[in-house]
Write the structure tokens for this entry.
Amino acid sequence: MNMAPSNLKTLDVGLTWRNSFAQLGRSFYTPLAPQPLPAPYWVGRSASVAKALGLDSDWLNSQELLEVLSGNQPLSGTQPLASVYSGHQFGQWAGQLGDGRAILLGETEGGLELQLKGAGLTPYSRRGDGRAVLRSSIREFLCSEAMQGLGIATSRALCVTGSDEEIYRESIETAAVVTRVAPSFVRFGHFEHFSHSGQHAQLKTLADYVIDKFYPECRTGDQFAGNPYAALLQAVSERTAHMVAQWQSVGFCHGVMNTDNMSVLGLTIDYGPFQFLDAYDPDHVCNHSDDRGRYAFNKQPNIAHWNLFCLGQALLPLISEQELALAALESYKTVFPAAFEKLMCAKLGLAHAGDSTAAVDRLLIEDILKLLAQDRVDYTIFWRRLSHASAGTDNQTVRDLFLDRHAADAWLLRYSERLTQVARGLATDLMLKTNPKFVLRNHLGEQSIRAAKLKDFSQVDTLLNLLESPFEEHPGFEAYADFPPDWASSIEISCSS
Ligand code: AMP
Ligand code: MG
């Protein structure tokens, strides 16, 4: 195992570190340095994440930081570690898992943790090699920043560094490291770990840590007065409901919603076999390893609730009363549909109006989703074209997307009648800020990966630039907002990463 190399010079990047997770105690992790990666090079870098960290963006051109973020040199002030967690995978209790290839470097004074994914073996690697391949690292990097651009809660990614070191998956690939950034990487699975192994003192330590740092209102709110752990379960349920509502509204399929991939902060984390829908297919399964379609697109909202039940069960020793836990979980059932409806109304340019129009709007949403599914209409292009069309009276570009023009016309008529009740200019503005022009379609990621394998990283840069501001027009980049090519449907994305 890689112990912190004491003979190496540490790099000081001018940040102050406080490493609060490391202070939880040794039951929570193993102190561990990343494993060196030979001759690393930059693959992708985000200046905006550097800014969020308070890191001077010049560092993203420095050989020293490149070495640090590839695991070759320690970062001054950090306490690297791999944390232990457990989880339910594909509906089954999987027992102990943990950071099998991620090393938490530390937490900045500003409260952002830095984690290297693909940084080598840890005590939790099980049969894995501790590494991540270039392909999945580019996907994680770009998708983290795409989600941020879309306004969806997510872990961020500062950079990807690559190496020619060979990695064995279905074929020979090369290694890469993603530097991930989030206020915390604590998962539902962390709570399950301490609960199901009977380590209830640690369970309480973890819950208190999460509450004090991220959910202080759980100690003062009156709904579960005196029971901050029930309040925590409710707060996490609500954040998760908002996150999944956003996934559904933008057409994002996570692909592996195991409880160890669910953030207790309601962040989208652990980007693996994810996909943004091309054609709208509610039953779409993006993960080729998911034979039974457990994580199909339209199942995500229920799966999130199922996962929250697992969290609730894990918290039961602290909540004490099952009734309270169930009550805390109930909120998901109202928060999710309300959040989803609000987001879908915004996609239609309808700021949430009063009760008088709610039923009409609900039907407009239900019916258009049915039509989109029936004709397998491209989800992103439909909403963007509708946004532009809402400004005038010409719906041609929208109706062109449908096979059943008659049904499309009938819906468009109902919709334009509804639009007469609102200020059109405002509706169009709202739609153009809600319906992205650019999403990280599989084929776009794939093209950038193919070029990156040949050491051309310009496509990664271009995509990052577009996805950081997906609602802007970016003239000259229309091709990135176009329909997927025929070969896109043959891209197979699996758990292999
Ligand atoms: P994932 O499905 O990627 O969320 O991974 C599930 C578990 O397997 C986590 O505990 C990971 O740390 C671990 N894991 C995945 N890939 C590897 C790998 N190549 N080496 C070691 N552990 C891994
Ligand atoms: Mg994971």
The longest helix spans residues 322-347. The pocket of magnesium ion (ligand 2) is lined by residues 260-261, 270 (CB under 6 Å).
